[in-house]
Amino acid sequence: MGATGAAGSNGSIGTTGPTGAAGPTVLTVSNTSSANTLTTTVNSVTGIGVAIINSHTLSMAGNTLTSTVNGVSATASVVTGVSNTSSGNTLTTTVNGVTGTAVNMINTNVLTMTGTTLTSTVNGVTSAGVNLAALDSNIYTTDGTLSGNRTVIMAADNLTFSSTTGNMIFNPSSTGRVGIGTASPTNTLSVVAASNPLYLGGLQNGATTDSTLSILNGVVRKVSNAIHDVIGGLSAGGVTVAPNQTSGAYTGDSIILPPGKWLVSVNMLMEPLWPLFTPSNSSIWMQSTFSTTKTSQSPTTDIVGNNTLISGLMPPSSPYANLSGSMLINNASGANKVYYYATQSSFASGSGFASGSSGASSTTGVGGTTLTNAVSLVNFGSNASGENTILAIPVQ
Asked: Is residue 352 within 8 Å of residue 363, measured between CB atoms?
């Protein structure tokens, strides 16, 4: 065969040819999958199965989950809600709305004391030891100091302190007090009850040298037997009392009474100026009392009751007479107190005295001697006669 000749030039475009016959038509298409294989059937012709998932990876970053399938990634939060609740020793957890089974939080708890060291073991885990030596304030092993007021509520129970040979000692400070039946004790020991707050059993007979106790406004004090009877002091000269005297005078006598109630008795000699007698038809009535001052002869307010005066009568034609009586005095001051003996008014009656006179108009003395204005009572309250006495006796 010889060589190919050169190509000729392009001819002109021809006319459109007739329409060809119609190609084949797709009548049915279906896909089926089994496991990871996809099969397509077209017009009953089934193709070769291919893998549906060619690649699939899961990854976790924090609470974010990432899924990548065939190179396409999607993300979502793993946990959207978590809550814990406890009741007693039980813990319940709810995650994404799903509640788990309740469990015990503390399964075991053991305290162990070794010497003064305390350890706690919870669920098998042991804590570091704590030394309690510095905290030990047990009153049975060591002394201690209250940090504030404390109250023991006994209700109907008894609180008993018992000892074989030991002592129970209360040692309050100089301002501290012990109250029984009172929350506001006023003395070192205050015992208060509706009635009979104090009972002492087993008391023995005492000696004559023992002291006794007195109670004044509830306060108990020791009274020495040496001052059971108190004798007043008398002045050397006494005082002169004129008839119809309207004001009192301090006699110079007094008595010192310890606290308490005292029955005070007075016995005084009444005598006119010697050697006179009272007139045969006249007499003198004289009053006396105790005062708390020398300058004021008013009866002391410590006198109990209305008996504030001790009086006596100097009868007619008498060289002597006796003034005697007693009164109750209550010294509530809490200390020794001085009471001053004083005269009060004197009342002269009878024709032997001029009206309003301070003495006698005319009096005949011993031996017929006539003396004028001389029937005053002299030496009243004096210690010279040996008959004058002021005596006090304690009473309940």
From this structure: yes
Q: What is the C-alpha to C-alpha distance for residues 333 and 262, in angstroms, rounded to an integer?
A: 13
CA dihedral 309, 315, 318, 324 (to 10 degrees): -20
Phi, psi of 182 (to 5 degrees): -150, 140
CA-CA-CA-CA torsion for 254, 255, 261, 266, nearest 10 degrees?
-70
Half-sphere exposure (CA, 13 Å, Cβ side) for 183?
A: 2
Q: Are 309 and 326 in contact (CB under 8 A)?
A: no
Q: Pick the more confident residue, 168 or 297.
A: 297
- What is the widest separation between alpha-carbon atoms in the chain? 227
CA dist., res. 300 & res. 270, Å (int): 24
Written as six digits, the tokens of 242 are: 């004129």
> Exposed, middle or buried, 68 (CB in 10 Å: 0-12/13-18/19+)?
middle
How far, in Å, CA of 37 to CA of 48, rounded? Answer: 10
Closest alpha carbon to 297 in 285, 288, 306, 305? 288
| Tokens encoding 22 | 């119609």
Beta strands 189-191 and 178-180: pairing type? parallel
Q: Which residues of 174-210 are buried (b: 16+ CB within 10 A; e: fewer)?
A: eeeeeeeeeeebeeeebbeeeeeeeeeeeeeeeeeee
Quote the tokens at residue 154.
Answer: 């006994």
pLDDT at 172 over 50: yes
181 contact partners, CB below 8 Å, separation of at least 6: 191, 192, 193, 197
User: What would the pLDDT profile of 338-355 be if each residue is shown by its tens digit?
Assistant: 999 999 987 776 654 433
Q: List Cα–Cα distances, 75 to 51, 104, 226, 238, 389, in angstroms.
A: 24, 36, 112, 128, 124
Peptide bond into 18 cis (omega under 30): no
| Alpha-carbon distances, residue 237 vs 111, 161, 206, 240, 290 (angstroms) | 94, 66, 43, 9, 18
- Can you tell me the distance from the alpha carbon of 37 to that of 302, in angstroms, rounded to the nearest whole number? 129
Name the pTM for this structure.
0.45
- Taking CA atoms, 32 is separated from 26, 44, 55, 395, in Å, by 18, 13, 20, 131
Q: How far is CA 383 from CA 242, 344, 367, 377, in A?
A: 20, 20, 29, 15
